[in-house]
């Protein structure tokens, strides 16, 4: 018989963005580029060294969104997936960002 995997999908749709930010973990800090956001999480490309692992608490500072606190859900090859803390002011900031400022970034094709 065929076994079906119970894989949980994303709970919120991701939107592509291009934002610079700073990521802090303990006493470490690195520049980063946020490449996607949702109401519950963000995808980050690290531009420097930052030693984090799944479960690490990080703080992300951007000019567009502000200060966001979250937990690393995955880290691989200079990329991070961060789940925004549910009990913090970060969720309100993300909602305000989507309501007032967000515009989907679309690829530019040049020929």
TrEMBL record:
<dbReference type="Pfam" id="PF07238">
    <property type="entry name" value="PilZ"/>
</dbReference>
<dbReference type="InterPro" id="IPR009875">
    <property type="entry name" value="PilZ_domain"/>
</dbReference>
<feature type="domain" description="PilZ">
    <location>
        <begin position="10"/>
        <end position="93"/>
    </location>
</feature>
<dbReference type="GO" id="GO:0035438">
    <property type="term" value="F:cyclic-di-GMP binding"/>
</dbReference>
<protein>
    <submittedName>
        <fullName>PilZ domain-containing protein</fullName>
    </submittedName>
</protein>
């Amino acid at each position: 018989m065929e076994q079906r995997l119970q894989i949980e999908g994303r709970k919120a749709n991701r939107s592509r963005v291009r934002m610079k930010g700073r990521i802090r973990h303990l006493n470490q800090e690195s520049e980063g580029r946020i490449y996607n956001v949702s109401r519950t999480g963000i995808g980050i490309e690290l531009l420097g060294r930052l030693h984090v692992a799944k479960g690490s608490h990080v703080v992300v500072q951007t000019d567009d969104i502000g200060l966001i606190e979250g937990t690393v859900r995955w880290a691989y090859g200079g990329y991070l997936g961060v789940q925004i803390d549910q009990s913090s002011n970060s969720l309100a900031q993300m909602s305000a960002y989507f309501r007032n400022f967000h515009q989907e970034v679309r690829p530019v094709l040049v020929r």
